[in-house]
Amino acid sequence: MTFWLPRLVGMQRAFELTYLNRMLTAKEAFAWGLFNGVIAADKFADEVFGVARQIADGPKLAYARSKKLCNLSLSQTLES
Q1: How many CB atoms lie within 10 A of CB 75?
Q2: How far apart are CA 57 and CA 79, in angstroms?
Q3: What are the angstrom distances between the C-alpha of 42 and each of 46, 47, 48?
Q4: What DSSP character marks residue 49?
Q5: Which residues of 29-57 are buried (b: 16+ CB within 10 A; e: fewer)?
Q6: What is the pLDDT of residues 3-42, one digit of tens each?
Q7: How crowded is the C-beta side of 18, counted as CA atoms within 13 Å?
Q8: CA distance 29 to 41
Q9: Listed residue (71, 77, 80, 78) closest to 7, CA to CA
Q10: Is the distance from CB of 47 to CB of 40 less than 8 angstroms?
């Protein structure tokens, strides 16, 4: 958690959650970018398989390069 949380919500919010052990509401967690949305339980499987199909049918080389660049961006400067 201490590795990913500051990257997801910023240092101040990460410290707040870590030090105060505060429970976020779903609305706060969504606003902070901890998840992308809420899906009704009866539609969950259809949504998951729909997203998986969209990714599987997408441009694999572009996905691979985007993933590599996003991962590298965490340890690189803007100039590099």
Answers
A1: 7
A2: 33
A3: 8, 10, 12
A4: H
A5: eeeeeeeeeeeeeeeeeeeeeeeeeeeee
A6: 889 988 999 999 999 999 989 999 999 999 999 989 999 9
A7: 13
A8: 19
A9: 71
A10: no
The rounded distance, in Å, linking the Cα atoms of 76 and 61 is 22
Local structure of residue 34 (DSSP, 8 states): S
Helix (H/G/I), strand (E/B), else coil: 66: helix
- Which amino acid appears at position 72 of this protein? L
Whole-number Å distance between alpha carbons of 66 and 61: 8
Is the pTM higher than 0.70? The answer reads: no
Residue ranges per structural domain of the chain: 1-38, 39-80
Structure tokens of 6? 């500051």
- Residue 75: pLDDT band by 50, 70, 90 thresholds? confident
Tokens representing 33 are 């970018």
